[in-house]
Amino acid sequence: MKTNTVLCRIAGLGLGLSMALGLAGAAQAIEVGGLKFDDTVKVAGKELKVNGAGIRTRFVVKVYALVLYLPEKKSTPADVLASPGPRRFTLGLLREVTGDELGQAFLAGITANTDKAERSKFVNQLAQFGDAFVSISAGKKGDVITVDWVPDTGTVMTYNGKPIGEPMKDVAFYNAVLKIWLGDKPVDSSLKPQLLGAKG
């Protein structure tokens, strides 16, 4: 009886340890600006990994945390923009901000990093993009916006897990959005290298 009891306890401990290790493996996350983000995500059935992450600051105020996910690691803006398949960036707010403020800031970043001829190719998508942010009345710290590139569907946005706006078809538009941080005139020069995998 004693032998059976000991064996049962050992088996129980082994099972408990296996479950704990399994849960630990399933719950991997990275922390950026005090917010936690998954270290891998699935978009359009494909697993994406963190390419880089950092914090957008404006006049020393932390505005949002940003995480870029790609199928494979890329270390230059050109390689990120040319990356085939699905992509994602996730933005977690670190302060209160209205959707209108975010939309205006994003549109200003796109304008700074694209020329007029380039923007003329996706005028309608720029308008859709701005309209999507209007649905966010007052963003709070911890709120999350995801912006995915889904092949054959387009740019797909969610706010706290709920879709906002309609898919925007042109991959050139998605790349124009990424240029807000990865273009020649990024909104935050310290965030750009971090999204490309630099430590810091």
From TrEMBL:
Residues 30-197 form the Chalcone isomerase domain. InterPro entries: Chalcone_isomerase, Chalcone_isomerase_3-sand, Chalcone_isomerase_sf. Residues 1-29 form the signal peptide. Keywords: Isomerase, Signal. One of its GO terms (molecular function) is isomerase activity. This is Chalcone isomerase family protein.
